[in-house]
Design brief:
It is built from nine helices and 15 strands. With about 290 residues, the protein is an alpha+beta fold. The strands form four sheets. It has a five-stranded antiparallel β-sheet with strand order 2-1-5-4-3. It has a five-stranded antiparallel β-sheet with strand order 10-9-8-12-11. A three-stranded antiparallel β-sheet has the order 13-14-15, with no helix packed on it.
Length: about 290
């Protein structure tokens, strides 16, 4: 005669009714609940940092320009995000109140809006009041006859998407650090992880961001990037180059000139004379050691 199963255990020979779960050890229940809570927290955190999630919950800034590029209207978010009180942009030409280094970018956007066949990718810009990263698109408006009636400038604030978790307000003396660099590829914005970047090369007001997969175009300038990348890893070794020292392999001296060889790069990068001491210091090399090499 079969003995009844001990309390807290199911009889393996007796089927469990549908809809009734076998009894579990209380410790197993607590552990399972903790695992489920952890997984849910991780999933929620990942979703909250995803580009789609952040864009879906982001406000859209809209600025209306007339055919002479004069600011005539903007929505409430644009009024909050832009330095309206300081610049007083209404009834002024849109180029007149931008910083000098941003004028070429804004003009490029407006020129692209005139092209009837191209579909230019959005432009990324960093504005300094406040420290925000904006993703901007300009489109031309036409009247019944097809003539230019004005322009609409639309922007997203993508600061949370490309920056670190710690707000700049907690570090008032520091610029907000970027964790991803917005680059352009085939009419798309591609966010490149900072840790994968070996170096950045300036080209006018723009930059080329190099990784193991190749170089990507970014319309952020090298000065803005230098201020917002981790100074412990990235160093402005030359007016045209920003190097990730985690990729450093060799320091080369040739006829009085210094260059830096990075892992995965066939050509060494030039190092300005004024940047040599800082480079050696960050790599833990004394000037005497460098001269011996």
């Amino acid at each position: 005669m079969r003995q009844p199963a001990p309390s807290g255990h199911t009889d393996p020979a007796r089927p469990v009714p549908i809809g009734v779960s076998p009894l579990r050890n209380p410790q197993q229940s607590v552990l399972q609940s903790a695992i489920e809570t952890r997984d849910l927290a991780v999933e929620t955190r990942m979703q909250s940092r995803s580009p789609l999630y952040l864009l879906e919950r982001s406000d859209v800034g809209v600025v209306q320009l007339d055919r002479e590029l004069t600011v005539v209207a903007m929505n409430s978010f644009a009024r909050r995000a832009l330095p309206v009180e300081d610049k007083q942009p209404f009834e002024k030409m849109v180029l007149s109140f931008h910083p000098e280094r941003s004028v070429a970018k804004v003009k490029f956007l407006l020129d692209q809006a005139e092209c009837p066949v191209s579909n230019p990718p959005p432009m990324t810009m960093i504005i300094n009041i406040p420290e925000r990263v904006l993703l901007i698109k300009v489109t031309k408006l036409s009247d019944l006859r097809g003539e230019t009636a004005g322009y609409t400038l639309i922007f997203y604030d993508i600061t949370e998407l490309v920056s670190g978790d710690e707000p700049a307000a907690l570090k008032p003396q520091a610029k907000r650090q970027l964790q991803k660099i917005p680059t352009v590829s085939q009419n798309r914005i591609v966010l490149v992880d900072v840790d994968s970047v070996s170096h950045i090369r300036a080209e006018g007001h723009y930059t080329w961001v190099s990784t193991a997969q190749g170089a990507s175009f970014s319309n952020l300038n090298i000065s803005d990037l230098a201020e917002r990348l981790d100074g412990a890893s990235f160093l402005r070794i030359h007016r045209s180059y920003l190097a990730n020292l985690n990729f450093a392999e060799q320091i080369v001296r040739d006829e009085g000139k210094v260059s830096l060889k990075l892992r995965g790069e066939s050509n060494a990068l030039p190092v300005a004379r004024a940047s040599v001491p800082r480079l050696l210091e960050q790599l833990g090399i004394t000037e005497i050691d460098a001269l011996r090499s």
